[in-house]
């Protein structure tokens, strides 16, 4: 089992989507005043389309408006699949009604009244580079 396997682009994308599907939390890194700032976020995905829900009045929204570059780290959780994704991305803060309804779920009721809450916004993550490490595989890189 010590053998490493190299995936083609399609297989790599499938493995990335599986890792996104299996890991519902990530660390989101932004830049504040030239310094990194990291926090845990619930992750929502539709294939390789990654979304994070947040309040429009949070520091991360201000940080992303000043500098849309971000970094996500997910995986290797206890009991999880042990895959790791490191995602370099740009992030757009959006109040797109369709996206807000797509991402909405009951767990968000702790913070928002519903998908029409004016403070509820989506961080639309646009990956430019993803490093993937599978259980038995060497590090592989996907680029847009």
UniProtKB/TrEMBL annotation:
| Residue intervals of the Pyridoxamine 5'-phosphate oxidase N-terminal domain | 12-133
Organism expressing this protein natively: Paenibacillus ottowii
The record's section on PANTHER family has: PROTEIN BLI-3
Q: Which InterPro entries match?
A: Pyridox_Oxase_N (IPR011576), Split_barrel_FMN-bd (IPR012349), Stress-Dev_Protein (IPR052917)
What lineage does the source organism belong to? Bacteria, Bacillati, Bacillota, Bacilli, Bacillales
Which Pfam families does the entry link to?
PNPOx_N
What Gene3D superfamilies does the entry give? Answer: Electron Transport, Fmn-binding Protein, Chain A (2.30.110.10)
Descriptive protein name: General stress protein
Q: Where is the signal peptide?
A: none
């Amino acid at each position: 089992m010590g053998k490493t396997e190299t995936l083609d682009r399609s297989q790599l994308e499938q493995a990335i989507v599986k890792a996104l599907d299996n890991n519902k939390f990530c660390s989101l890194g932004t830049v504040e005043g030239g310094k990194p700032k990291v926090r845990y976020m619930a992750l929502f995905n539709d294939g390789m389309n990654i979304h994070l829900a947040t309040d429009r009045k949070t520091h991360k929204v201000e940080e992303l408006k000043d500098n849309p570059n971000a970094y996500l780290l997910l995986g290797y959780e206890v009991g999880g699949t042990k895959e790791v994704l490191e995602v370099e991305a740009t992030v757009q803060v959006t109040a797109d009604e369709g996206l807000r309804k797509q991402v909405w779920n009951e767990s968000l009721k702790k913070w928002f009244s519903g998908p029409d809450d004016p403070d509820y916004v989506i961080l639309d993550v646009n990956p430019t580079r993803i490093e993937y490490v599978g259980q038995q595989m060497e590090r592989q890189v996907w680029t847009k």
